Amino acid sequence: MAASSGYPALAELKGRDFLSSTDTTAEQTSALLQLAADLKAGRTHIDLGGRSLGLIFSKASTRTRVSFTVAMARLGGQTIDLNPQVSQVGRGEPVADTARVLSRYVDALAIRTFAQEELAEYAHWASIPVINALTDLEHPCQALADYLTLQEAFGELGGLTLAYVGDGNNVAHSLMLCGALLGVNVRVGCPQGYEPDAAVLEQSRQLAGNRCSIDVVHEPVAAVRGAHALYTDVWASMGQEDEKAAREAAFSGWCLNEELVAEADPRAIVLHCLPAYRGLEISSGAMEGSSSSIFDQAENRLHAQQALLAALLGGA
Ligand code: CP
Ligand code: NVA
What we know:
This protein is 42% helix and 13% strand. It is of the alpha/beta class and 316 residues long. Helix 4 crosses helix 5. The longest helix has 20 residues.
């Protein structure tokens, strides 16, 4: 079955890039979550017929790499791991050349890199869909899985509140942007100096309009009070290893622990994109407690990306 036949909002995504959470409209984002839920439940099956996805990952990955690989296999396609260390990318072949050559071989590229500008450069030169598999600015595939997990817990997303406690990083940015599209209130709680990017905050508020609110607070309890999801991520992202000690000092008192969970809505779920440092940004108790949906969330990367690939590749 072609993705577009049962999900009309997704038809326009065929052949498009997914570089940011804002590359899909509110309606398309909701439709992707619906398709992901249907694929997960076995209510629909999509065979793309032997398509190929290339993975160019300049940073480590477990979940993103494996979930894209398995998602593509479930769609009847295959994945080629173009690790920069074993391809000419690592030797400095220009993006313009690599992107044009790979466009002749594979049907889509999922790229994990540092600068969002490099991802945009791939998208500019490639004639196939390019997917953001994490940059320093955004992690939009993660946000799809995260809101799928929240939708599974509460049914309707509109009007819910997600509290993100921690660094205003790539994961926070995509949660803000995608949350704004889906009508979810997003409250980011962080120490002074670790706020989300001001332009992303403004963009999120524009998208939210008067449907929901996107707030930044500087006190952990104020962030989580009454929230339906409590989310955190590492304090030092990949590429910030040198700042680890300074960040641990700055984030002292910001661990997502059982005391913070007790301040949230009694039905609240605990989320973490993983990998986690237990005892730093999240306590072992919060991670393993009855409120934790962290491993459902990790599983949902597979279903959300299967839906995304089906939409971008437009069905067989
Ligand atoms: N959450 C996430 O993207 O995990 P990986 O770095 O293992 O892909
Ligand atoms: N913010 C983290 C997310 C890892 C999945 C990083 O960029 O390292």
